[in-house]
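One record is kept unedited as follows:
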Amino acid sequence: MDNDWIDTGPELATKLERIYGLLERHHLDALLLRQASNFAWATCGAASFINRADSLGAATLVITPQRRLVVSDNIEAPRLMNEAGLGQQGWESATQPWYTGQDPLAALIQGVRAGADFAYPGALDLAGELSALRLPLTAQEGQRFRRLGRLCAQGMEQAARAVVPGMSEYEIAAALAQAVEAAGVQATVNLVAVDERIFAYRHPLPTSRRLQKYAMLILCGRQGGLVCSLTRLVHFGPLPAEVRRKAEAVARIDAEMIAATRPAGTLGDVFAAAQVAYAAAGFPDEWQLHHQGGPAGYHPRETIATPGATRPILAGQVFAWNPSITGAKSEDTILVGEQGNEILTEMPNWPVLAIQAGGQTIKRPAILERTDL
């Protein structure tokens, strides 16, 4: 089991308490969870998906105040109950042969008032409320996030330092995927741009374009359901003055956003700090060209910060901000602590810019300048 290095008992108890509270608020008897993200959240990290591209998993959780069922076919049940550790967590298996073609939930919830995170006849749609329920992370999730951040950072640095001119974006993406997948992290978002494509697209799906001087690598890595995000840039030869100016500006914007991400504040507060920082850097309208990020968890972003957003920032939450100025970007995943913020995807050997923001020094990644080739 991928998360067997952490005791999930306290985490599971906390989540069940939240779920039972949700059922009570809506006067429901059962909750059905089929989204892969919610399945991982409720089971403290188990993977229900087979096809990574499908948001729905191959099993459904049925949770009532009296029982906790894992509903699946006979293909998935052994792995989920044994290898994924759900039997050890106290879940019961409700299994049917894969070839029946029948709805396994129909008999289980007949006459039951149910809520669900997917479209199911007669069930109340609770997908939005479940997203909010996931946001206050447990201490155990924070520990897993730290481990995931280290693995994502190590994989990113390995891949970024292996980049050389002549590689295609496909080849760079393959190197990044190999580096993290070998450590048990799924590259759920793997974006690469080289040279002029960095200036043209905020979400650059890899192509056959070959690197000449400038490369950008973007990763969202998933393990145990949790997702870390980070971006790094590499330049070969002298860095153009305009690119350096933009990189330093976006690093300062990112630092101001990290400094503003503190308990008692809101997403809107951070967004306002970003807007001020963009203007002070001489790029007042660049924030309009791409979202600025938000709280992370079982999705790369559980919600996206927007002007005036009132969602509160809580200690223990994880955030991934990603300010960008055309041709430059800054992105890491941070954990909000009681006394300060922790950069989970920090790379000790990567060049940094030391930025003064909020009365502290915040290190943001610089562009790795390669002059050895």
About this structure: The chain has two domains: 9-134, 139-370. Residues 139-370 form a domain with the Creatine Amidinohydrolase fold (CATH 3.90.230.10). The chain is about 30% helix and 25% strand. The longest strand covers residues 226-236.
